[in-house]
From TrEMBL:
It holds the Pfam family MeaB. The keyword Hydrolase applies. It comes from the Eukaryota. One of its GO terms (cellular component) is cytoplasm. This is AAA+ ATPase domain-containing protein. SUPFAM superfamilies: P-loop containing nucleoside triphosphate hydrolases. It comes from Danionella cerebrum. Belongs to the SIMIBI class G3E GTPase family. ArgK/MeaB subfamily. Homodimer. Interacts with MMUT (the apoenzyme form); the interaction is GTP dependent.
Length: 400
């Protein structure tokens, strides 16, 4: 669906509905022993300008006593670094239940406010380092994460791993792949199955990152399966995107999309040990040459190609030093803050498009006409463009 049609739908939604909010949870930090404060009744139209106070106050329906206790328990446990509270909070934001979605947004706003206060004490710089990891099957992503994760926890870092797979509903697979790291009390591994929807990757993973950072994890690793479009979604939510490739022979450059290579801030050739050292060096040279011909993602950083061995540990320390060098470069220049601000905007528009499409598909007039119009399109009676215009007209003219 094109941007023009998206905006037509948005215009209809803003014209036909008003957001009525009752008791509002204020998202200021709660002092020890101080109860949560709720503002009085508020009502505003989506057509009006949203004030700063309205942005800070996330409006939802009246909270029950049980919901208040639940949110307080989750928030206190989360900022206290309790793994159980983090797991329960991520489960809440992953829920598709409308009421739980509202509760998750209240929790997220409080965590965001807490994180902003922490960043103010850090000269406005982010406290956590978000790293996206991608690569084709067999690239050794799990071994890489386990070796790097153990090294980082040994240095005093707290590491969270979010494994994103739009096609999977696995709940235990990621922990069985990273046995040592999963037993580390300074590491947290969470699979993020999204029931096959790319939009789910954006929403749930973004929110899980926020919760992990609120729980004190200063290194967040986001792993994708290395197929489909999930890499592009993940690249829009991390500070650094790392592409892992195996040292296999053949037309390796043809096997990975050019767009994914262009997104990479760092390319890592894995399994560079034993008989694979020579092929690994060859692949390193090929990618180094290829990166010189591609468009640079950053004005200040030239993507590098490195070799490591998860089995022997060779190159792992040097790899981390390079990643820290990247972070220092983009942080001191202000590029990191600009990148995160742009990612927040992308996140917002992704959610708008996802929710707008759902409203459109659930509209009674659209649902009534859709089967007939789909049959006429597939039979060639009318063009897809005309069918889309008819559905949009039905959506705009008839109120549900």
């Amino acid at each position: 669906m094109g941007h023009v049609r998206i905006f037509q739908i948005l215009h209809h939604l803003t014209r036909s509905s008003a957001l009525h909010c009752t008791v509002t949870l204020r998202h200021s930090l709660r002092k020890p022993g101080e109860s949560l404060h709720y503002s009085s009744f508020c009502t505003f139209s989506q057509r009006r300008t949203v004030s700063t106070e309205t942005v800070m106050d996330h409006c939802i329906s009246d909270l029950t006593d049980w919901e208040k206790r639940l949110l307080t328990k989750l928030y206190d446990g989360l900022i206290g670094g309790q793994r159980a509270a983090l797991a329960e909070s991520i489960t809440l934001v992953e829920s598709q239940h409308p009421r739980k979605k509202e509760l998750s947004q209240v929790l997220l706003q409080r965590v965001l406010a807490f994180r902003q206060e922490q960043e103010k004490c850090n000269a406005g710089q982010p406290l956590a380092f978000r790293v996206g990891l991608s690569g084709p099957p067999g690239a050794g992503k799990s071994s890489f994460i386990e070796v790097v994760g153990k090294m980082l926890t040994g240095k005093g870092h707290k590491v969270s791993v979010l494994a994103v797979d739009p096609s999977s509903c696995s709940l235990l697979g990621d922990k069985t792949r990273m046995t040592e790291l999963s037993r580390d009390m300074n590491a947290y591994i969470r699979p993020s199955p999204t029931s096959g929807t790319l939009g789910g990757v954006t929403r749930t993973t973004n929110e899980a990152i926020v919760l992990c950072e609120g729980a004190g994890y200063d290194i967040v690793l986001v792993e994708t399966v290395g197929v489909g479009q999930s890499e592009f979604a993940v690249a829009d939510m991390v500070d650094m995107f790392v592409l892992l490739i195996p040292p296999a022979g053949g037309d390796e450059l043809q096997g990975i999309k050019r767009g994914i290579i262009e997104m990479a801030d760092l390319v890592v050739v894995t399994k560079s040990d034993g008989e694979l050292v020579v092929p690994a060096r060859k692949i390193q040279a090929e990618y180094t040459s290829a990166l010189k011909l591609l468009r640079k993602k950053s004005k200040l950083w030239n993507p590098k190609v490195m070799r490591i061995s998860s089995q022997t540990g060779q190159g792992v320390s040097e790899l981390w030093e390079t990643m820290l060098q990247f972070r220092e470069t983009v942080q001191t220049s202000g590029e990191l803050c600009n990148r995160r601000q742009m990612q927040q905007k992308v996140w917002m528009w992704n959610l708008i498009q996802e929710n707008t499409l759902r409203h459109f598909q659930q509209h009674p007039a659209v649902r009534a006409q859709l089967p007939l119009l789909e049959r006429r399109v597939t039979s060639g009676e009318i063009s897809p463009g005309l069918a889309a215009d008819l559905l949009l007209k039905a959506f705009s003219d008839k109120q549900p």
